[in-house]
Amino acid sequence: QDTEWLKNNVSFIGEVLLGHLRYGTHGKNSIENCHPFLRQNNWMTRNLVIAGNFNMTNVDELLEQLYELGQHPKEKADTVTVLEKIGHFLDDENQDLFDQYKKEGHDNVAITHKISDNLDIANILRRSAKTWDGGYSICGMVGNGDSFIMRDPAGIRPAYYYYDDEIVVAASERPALQTAFNIQFKDVKEIDPGHALIIKKNGEVSMEQFREPTERLSCSFERIYFSKGSDVEIYRERKQLGRLLCNQVLNAVGHDLKNTVFSFIPNTAEVAFFGMVDGVQQYVRNHQKDTLLHRKEQLSDTELDELLSMAPRVEKLAVKDVKLRTFITQDADRGEMVAHVYDTTYGIINNHQDTLVALDDSIVRGTTLKQSIIKIVDRLHPKKIIIVSSAPQIRYPDCYGIDMSR
User: Fold this and answer.
1) What is the mean pLDDT of the segment spanning 10-37?
2) Which CATH number fits domain 239-389: 3.30.750, 3.40.50, 2.60.120, 3.40.1350?
3) 6, 238, 309, 399: least buried by Cβ within 10 Å?
């Protein structure tokens, strides 16, 4: 019950906590690349920590601006550039307030407290992000206990928050908040594009605009593949993507459900697969209804049994080791991992008779398909293999969202 004692004696106890899961899609996966990044200073209100989900496309330009300010960052990276950009204007804000309170006759100790109470975080972010070009969801803490979560003007990267009279919490995914705090979908709000959620050390919470919002441009790959499928909006979108494939798939197999097996490439394609199967089942119901309503001759018992037993053959043929996810692996290791991550279920396919339809949620590099999936399911000796993607064709790198350039 003694919160003051806990804060002084137990690790990771405090008013403000910031964490980050390094799941790099750009650059290296090393300790040096792990967030948060810290900009240290002996002045409490000049300390800054940031962590985020972001790609800046104009790093060269931003770096040049830092040079013009007299800085010389030790490396060219958007994390360093963003940290130093915010840090510069945090220093500016501190100096302006110091000069103001010094003129008013306050001593240095009093000035420190007044700066802490009156830091204008929104103004710091407006000045810092004025020339940023990228997709970003960035969290930050100042040494005095102020904190913020900012989102790019186009809403490319996701950001959600929840707060009540006890807590303020933000994350890049809604289900993380729902699970951790046992709250409802309606209680979790989205941070508006071009806005920052600002939490002052005294508990005051505000939503401030730091950039003019533009046309909404959510990263499609984030929603199709990257985000957790337990978010109800993501779940419904992915299911609909699968459902939309139904007619093309049925045409490709000649509507021959008897000799077609439907499956998916685990694990993230499962929800889209449910949607495709729903679509096929709807086709079956419509076919049965039309046959029963419009057939002039009476159906025999055999014909009726065959009609009513008509259903898609749904099987789990590809089995994945859930501990391994190959998209995120470095190029040098990806091939070897892909070769060992999948296995298959034998004895389900009728040799050289059944057509196999396998749905994937996206085809980016094609590494998984070429080096593992096709080789493994080919051992089942299907008559034909049809690979279906629930995502549109990926033709170009996504410089603002998930990096898919290699």
Assistant:
1) 76
2) 3.40.50
3) 309
